[in-house]
Amino acid sequence: MNAAEVPVPPTGDLLVGRSGQLTASSTCGLDRAQKYCILSYLEGEQKCFICDSRFPYDPHTQPNSHTIENVITSFEPEREKKWWQSENGVTKFLYNLLFLHIFSLDHVSIRLDLEVLFQLSHLILTFKTFRPAAMLVERSTDYGHTWRVFKYFAKDCAASFPNITSGQAQGVGDVVCDSKYSDIEPSTGGEVVLKVLDPSFEIENPYSPYIQDLVTLTNLRINFTRLHTLGDTLLGRKQNDSLNKYYYALYEMVVLGSCFCNGHASECGSAQKTRGDVFSPPSMVHGRCICQHKTDGPNCERCKDFFQDASYGPPGQCLPSGGLSGGVGDDCPQNTEGQHCDGCRPLFSRDPLKAISDPYACIPCECDPDGTISGGLCVSHSDPDLGSVTGRSLCKENVEGAKCDRCKPNHYGLSAADPLGCQLKANKVYQCEEVRMRTTMYDVLSACACHPLGSLPLLPCD
What we know:
Layout: E1 12-13, E2 22-24, E3 34-37, E4 48-51, E5 84-85, E6 91-95, E7 100-104, E8 108-127, E9 134-140, E10 148-154, H1 157-160, E11 177-178, E12 191-195, H2 209-215, E13 216-226, H3 240-243, E14 249-259, E15 268-269, E16 288-289, E17 295-296, E18 302-303, E19 307-310, E20 317-320, E21 336-337, E22 343-344, E23 348-350, E24 362-364, E25 399-400, E26 406-407, E27 411-412, E28 423-424, H4 428-438, H5 441-447
Parallel strand pairs: 10-11
Antiparallel strand pairs: 1-14, 2-8, 3-4, 5-14, 6-7, 8-12, 8-13, 8-14, 9-10, 9-13, 15-16, 17-18, 19-20, 21-22, 23-24, 25-26, 27-28
């Protein structure tokens, strides 16, 4: 099974069918109707509106409801009339008899809780208002117990995230701060895009544990940490209308991903007794892998009963337990062999830069079969103690070259039928010299009476 044959489940929007698993820490109008305004230079005569999210959005009866499920992609007409919106932000003033308390409402989070482990590809956010001046995206692989950051975004990375490297990542998995998606323009319709695996880096083995750890998650959290403002929020309580103009608002959120099956499934089904909408839409990405290759488990992470792990991970396979394969490796993938499929077949050698689970871990020997022992064999793996190097050809006695494809000096006629590979040239001086090396002087004189200056070409030495 080569790389092209590794089954890949289809990718889709993980939000579809999971509105009940999407939450926001702040939503306008949840407890009571709230006033909000737009910037005065934006088009339209009306500048202030009412948000009332006590009931779900309905274009006819509840057009002012801006709950978080509004961000899930739909193909309704006039889609731009539906969005999620946080409470008015920046600062909140609370007075008691002695003190003025100021609370920041810049910090708002959106969270998606998945029922099983999934694989994430892209996150795309389309904003109705300014994009955040600063934000970060986190993930959890243990259902929210611990969190790790995917990426930071900020207009001023040094000010917002002073301990984080800014600019271009230097390698796959580097956590950096990106300023590309945090400018104050455009004022509406701006996007923030997260690509989990940076396409500028080549990934040799997408099934390595390191790469799999980078792309999997059970929970996704987006933290907005700073709003863009125009400098009118510092004027105090008398300018309360200025505070009503600043909040986070999203038209759409797309979480592209697939079920995570360790390369052992091409489709996934719905899991029983798991969270999700009551009626699953046709485009919903389910999380229960329909496993192939004798694998089992929610993510095809183990072998079925009576099968054993054979260098697990694509294109690794599960073989019958008890040595039923006889160690021959007939069921081993892509030019591997052995009871655990951890060696290369004859006429192949191990690429030292690839894991044995890689589809191209065993590469063909580049040896001339006429000049090598056993018709093209090469060293299958390196052994420093023996001084052997993987891929090196095993030449016959009178043959040389990295590929055993030429005769040694003063030899000719490379042939598969010749056990030495090549014959000594028909020059009696050379023939007699070779004879002298292998026999006594008496044998030489009796077997080959050669002229001191050499015999004529092609004359037998008898």
